[in-house]
Amino acid sequence: MRNYYIIVYGNMEKSRNLSTEMMHMTDIEIAQSCEMKPIGQIAADAGIPEEYLEYYGKYKAKLSLDVLKNKDRNNKLILVTAMTPTPAGEGKTTTTIGLADGMKKIGKSVNVALREPSLGPVFGIKGGAAGGGWAQVVPMEDINLHFTGDFHAIGAANNLLAAMLDNHIYQGNSLNIDPRRITWRRCVDMNDRQLRFVTDGLGGRVNGVPREDGYDITVASEVMAILCLAQSVSDLKERLAKIIVGYTFDEKPVTAGDLKAQGAMAALLKDALKPNLVQTLEGTPAFVHGGPFANIAHGCNSVIATKTARKLSDYTITEAGFGADLGAEKFLDIKCRYADMKPNAVVIVATVRALKMHGGVDKKNLGPENLEALEKGLPNLLRHVDNIKNVFHLPAVVALNRFPTDTDAEIEMVERRCKELGVNTVLSTVWADGGEGGKALAEEVVRLCEEESNADFSFVYELDLPVEKKIRAIAKRVYRASHVAFTKKAEKDIQKLTRMGYANLPICIAKTQYSFSDEAALICAPEGFVIHVKDVRISAGAGFLVALTGDIMTMPGLPKSPAAERIDVDDNGVISGLF
Length: 579
Prior knowledge:
Blueprint: E1 6-9, E2 12-15, H1 27-33, H2 39-45, E3 53-55, E4 61-63, E5 76-82, H3 92-105, E6 110-114, H4 119-123, E7 131-132, E8 135-138, H5 140-144, H6 150-170, E9 177-182, E10 186-188, E11 198-200, E12 211-213, E13 215-217, H7 222-229, H8 233-242, E14 244-248, E15 253-255, H9 262-269, E16 276-280, E17 285-288, H10 303-311, E18 315-319, H11 324-339, E19 345-350, H12 352-358, H13 371-391, E20 396-401, H14 408-419, E21 424-428, H15 430-433, H16 439-451, H17 467-479, E22 483-486, H18 488-499, E23 507-510, E24 530-539, E25 544-549, E26 568-569, E27 575-576
Helix pairs in contact: 3-16, 6-7, 6-9, 8-9, 12-13, 13-14
């Protein structure tokens, strides 16, 4: 086995064969130590003409939507997903980036397409979300913070609609909107539980109409979902116009189009719609664009970014948020439907440490070999593998991020159990070794694309099924729930949405990311549990129904010790603390 040394990475231990003076480098220090190429050179290497570029400084650019007019290539699409996440970490984004760099090292034409990080988790728990170690996208500080302003534009468009809605009521309410039935909420890209429920319009008549209101985090806004699913400016405007903001006194829906808001909203979003081009530490082109969460939204980067990447390379590596039960299911059942695409192969990321946590081991005791706990935790990974292989019928490989404490016996057990499902396991060391550590995974992905077929790909449900049956199909076929319990409110919601003509839309389930169930503490691969659907909402512009389960919230809160306490900037503008 190779010799490793330990690097402290937030709360995780990582490994790399480096000089002693580099032993304790954090992610941000690694990123700052590497010399980036001018973004014009990255674009030129990717075959992007200069006239398509809109520069945001030296190392970032947006691309004109004209790039989508390029001829289609025989591009292979690779989806990276993961087992159910744990505090031990799995490294999905890191693996996605390292795999792309590994593809480049074996001589393949490749691009990577990722989501933009939200300021909520950046300042909350994660402290950064642009990969890690030697598999990162850069400039990581910019990507993790304001980047090119996309999220600010989305928030502004969302809140413009809210302002126009309340102004309409204040100015006479010719649409007969019932203030008690307003469904549109304001948003801010920050974890701020104080804003979940507010009362506004106070202070007398000149200050508005008093009503109950609230905020969602920007990544949960329907405007975010619309931006990530729209495929042109005209499509964007059509989707924005369909947003339902509330209901009249006689319970008829009121849309953004009724308020004549879609044009101004689209004007705010016209630049945000264009995909962002950056690079990995090894100079692989990276399209980082859009960022809906997968536990409360559909969890994928924009269709435009994915299609742009596919126009410019032979292989496109993309990821979906959280575990395969959330991000991958929504990528396949929602994004692939609307974008008319299907992956050629799926990579499922796992770690021995995380599997032992699912087997009941405390985070502090994950180092020692524990085959019994690993055996207990493996069903979590195997369920995700089985779903990809036998529900969606796609070729798959397990990428096992190796830690220095992993023993040969533990690795052999994972390999053997995955092989029983017809899936190979490949060790990955991309955090420590960058693209070099992803070459073996890249070779297996290429093999899957060349030797196995995605022709039998199928969705979990057909769109013409009743809403309840579509929700049950996801809960039973993917989560393996025994039953779905709908509250009276959820049943009424479904009946109303069916009468309104929305029953044929895809389903986006809002659910905890920590379990197949809707209870975060029910880890590993539970059986015999019930999924509880509290209510069902319409995202008419995005084009899906949102089923809220368990205690999921659309505005997270900060933890007791937020990452923001450790983030700083010095007099030279050098940022620290983003892990």
